[in-house]
């Protein structure tokens, strides 16, 4: 039996490597439907031919929760590469944008629609008042219906680059089929929170390469900020609320 190497530890899960397998082990408090849903989305994108680690199984674990097992992809995440080579940030940013645009070309049946996902999230948000929720919902209803594959959390730590230059995309829990502008707004928001010095550069690069108006991505920003608020991360609350408030005045 191979040694167990812990890669990531969070309140609701542990990600570890065991030889050629990666196991994402959730705690018993994490709903089984959430784990199966993540594995289901992973299976859908794998079936569609998206470069993802091969899914190996979903099993109950000793802690009373559920685990997803997948193939270990050898290489480094874009996050590791950015941390190791800050001078190459532009190159890695470009790689991330190219991967995001390539991902949007896939059509994956059976995924939830991005607009509907946003609508459902906004409707559950008790932290914001009814008229702000109304403004946000109006905004989503005004957006065109698309069906591009959106990862929903395309950040540097969710992309592995192999030595041969090929890549693999991880962590599919938040994927949907819909609007590339919404996906870009999420990535921009994550950069603003985690690596603010690259946020504006990312947004300009994405819009240039996608031939998309920055204003279109900006229209999504209060909506995706509201959706991110459903994750209840205290450290992010202030910035997210500031982004959401834009919806009240437009
Ligand atoms: N299949 C894999 N191959 C290689 N590394 C992986 C794999 N899956 C996860 N990892 C590593 O573990 C980290 C956390 O896994 P991830 O699925 O992104 O969980 P989280 O929801 O905590 O972000 C990743 O950023 C990556 O470094
Ligand atoms: Mg991740």
Briefly summarize what is shown:
The chain has 2 domains: 4-71, 2-Layer Sandwich (Phosphorylase Kinase, domain 1); 76-249, Alpha-Beta Complex (Aminoglycoside 3'-phosphotransferase, Chain: A, domain 2), CATH 3.90.1200.10.
Question: Average pLDDT across residues?
Answer: 96
What overall form do the CA principal axes indicate?
A: globular
Task: Estimate the strand proportion.
Answer: 15-25%
* Low-pLDDT stretches: none
Q: What name goes with the CATH superfamily of the largest domain?
A: Aminoglycoside phosphotransferase (APH), C-terminal lobe
Attached small molecules: adenosine-5'-diphosphate, magnesium ion
Q: What would you report as the Rg, rounded to the nearest angstrom?
A: 18 Å
What's the main sheet like? 5 strands, antiparallel
| Spatial strand order of the main sheet | 1-2-3-5-4
What is the count of distinct domains? Answer: 2
Name of the CATH architecture of the largest domain: Alpha-Beta Complex
């Amino acid at each position: 039996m191979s040694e167990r190497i812990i890669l990531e530890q969070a309140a609701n899960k542990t990600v570890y490597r065991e030889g050629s397998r990666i196991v994402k082990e959730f705690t018993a408090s994490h709903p089984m439907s959430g784990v199966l849903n993540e594995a289901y989305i992973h299976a859908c994108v794998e079936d569609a031919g998206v470069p993802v680690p091969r899914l190996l199984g979903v099993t109950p674990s000793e802690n009373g929760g559920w685990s997803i097992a997948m193939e270990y992809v050898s290489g480094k995440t874009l996050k590791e590469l950015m941390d190791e080579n800050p001078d190459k940030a532009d190159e890695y940013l470009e790689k991330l944008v190219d991967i995001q645009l390539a991902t949007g070309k896939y059509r994956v049946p059976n995924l939830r629609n991005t607009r509907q996902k946003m609508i459902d999230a906004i409707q559950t948000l008790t932290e914001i008042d009814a008229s702000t929720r109304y403004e946000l919902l109006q905004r989503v209803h005004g957006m065109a219906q698309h069906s591009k594959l959106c990862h929903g959390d395309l950040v540097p730590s969710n992309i592995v680059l192999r030595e041969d230059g090929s890549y693999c995309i991880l962590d599919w829990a938040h994927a949907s089929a819909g609007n590339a502008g919404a996906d870009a707004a999420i990535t921009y928001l994550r950069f603003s929170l985690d690596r603010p010095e690259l946020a504006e550069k990312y947004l300009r690069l994405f819009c240039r390469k996608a031939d998309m108006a920055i204003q279109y991505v900006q229209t999504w920003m209060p909506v995706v900020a509201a959706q991110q608020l459903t994750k209840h991360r205290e450290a992010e609350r202030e910035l997210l609320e500031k982004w959401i408030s834009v919806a009240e005045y437009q």
